[in-house]
Amino acid sequence: MKVEDKQTGSFYTPKSLVSYMSEYAMQKVNAPTILEPSAGDGRFIDVLTDYDSSIDAIEIDANKIEYLKSVCPNNNVQLICANFIKYSLKSNKKYNLIIGNPPYITKKVLTEDERAISIELIKYWSLPDSIFQNLWVSFVLGALKLLNENGAIFFVLPFEFLQVHYAEKLRNFLEEKFNLIEITTFKESVFPDIEQDVCLVYMTNISGIKPIVKYTTVKNIDDYNPIEYSEIRRNKPLKKWSNSILNDDEIELLMNLSNQYTKVSSLGNISPGIVTGANDFFIINDSDAERLNCKELLIPIIQKGSSVSKLLLFAKDDFLELTELNKKVWMLNLSKVDITNISGDLKNYLSEGMIRELHKRYKCGQRKRWHDVPIISSGDLMFFKRYNKLPRLIVNSADVYTTDISYNIRLNNEFDAHSVAFCFYNSLTLTLCEYSGRFYGGGVAELVPSEFKSLSIPYKRIHKSSVKKLDRMLRENKTIEEIVKYVDGIVLNDLSPNDLDVLKKIREKYLIRRLKQ
């Protein structure tokens, strides 16, 4: 993948995938007219010219258009050098099939004029500006404007389309427009050179059918035999299309069980941790503290989940161990400090920060004094918002602060921190983490604050001996299966074996997809 391709969002579709998409679409829809809105090097055109259809191919790059003219003399193909978003706004032509792999370009790198064109298209559909975070959104809406009443759109889209919050209104809008939506995901990466998971999204209307979302997982671009298949008919519209990996019965079991237990939002006050604006500057180790002569200006802080990854109870001895390993677990707290009275070494350190232009960084620049980091209260519990296989809720017995890698929970009086943390590691809550959250390239999962607060925990008071045993199991690196089985036996002992088995299978589905297992 060339660097210039990445900058223009032009990740060319593998030819085997192009062939599959073209053959699939042409079998499903009668398409005398076809539009390829981002022609690139013409690989969709190469396949589609085998069919007796009139093809319009749009490409913004004039050099690529000239190349396509030299290799594509077919009279059924009209090559158009244009910005597709402008074309979609001006053209009244309609197509039976719109197919391709639109560019994935964040709006941050677009010009003001390019953004304005996309916003005009979004307003055409009376949708909120907030859905426009990437150019592929504009391509979906432009394609919809140019589509015949019974036509089909078939796009390669980033997997994030199925799950990100900003695209939720777009997904709901598309569910109103189409009664058949088919999603195909891949167990193996389509673009192994980049951390960008993709999916295929086919949308059309078929007379006489009730609205349905179909979700299929296949092995790779050379093997399209379904590994997983599910249909959503009753639970529409879906908040996240990524959850159509489940069927209606599985979703309803999750929701019914979730409604029986305590919501995380009711546990107490929940907030992200401290945002320093420059962790590598403000967070230091013991050696730095001694060198800068500033120990009285430090607060204890955790900035990496890996520092507390294998435990349930984070005690003062655990923090002491981190300091003895010279880990960076101290944050400079200079709020309300008279800078004229600090050590000369610390003054020089602040000057080094100015030389690095830290005072111009967004968060630092918003402060009256760039080095005064706002302090967010520590919590009884710490939840680390990003995780790999196992999300982590930890008792903050050491009373440390955290950066914004963690949500800090200050519990209401009726809840016991040790019991909440213990009860978190059950099959239902861990499955809800997968259902409610999202994941990124490489398989890292994340829960934003609203998603974390929506989780349910089957809370009950837990005996101290059980809590200590779970802490010991985590420290001894017991398997996730052993940990979950132990907790389930105490907090979900009222569930039937069948329900527990279904929860386990649902979670396995999510993990296989997310971790590419």
Concise summary:
By secondary structure, the protein is an alpha/beta fold.
Structure commentary:
This protein has 517 residues and is of the alpha/beta class. It folds into 3 domains: 3-245, 3-Layer(aba) Sandwich (Rossmann fold), CATH 3.40.50; 250-267 and 412-517, no CATH class; 274-376 and 400-407, no CATH class. Helices cover 37% and strands 21% of the residues. The chain is built from 20 helices and 23 strands. A 9-stranded mixed β-sheet has the order 3-2-1-4-5-7-6-8-9, sandwiched between helices. Helix 5 runs parallel beside helix 6 and helix 6 crosses helix 7 (135-145). The longest helix is centred in the C-terminal third of the chain and has 19 residues, at 497-515. It is globular and about 80 Å long. GO terms for molecular function: nucleic acid binding; site-specific DNA-methyltransferase (adenine-specific) activity. This is site-specific DNA-methyltransferase (adenine-specific). Keywords: Methyltransferase, S-adenosyl-L-methionine, Transferase. One of its GO terms (biological process) is DNA modification.
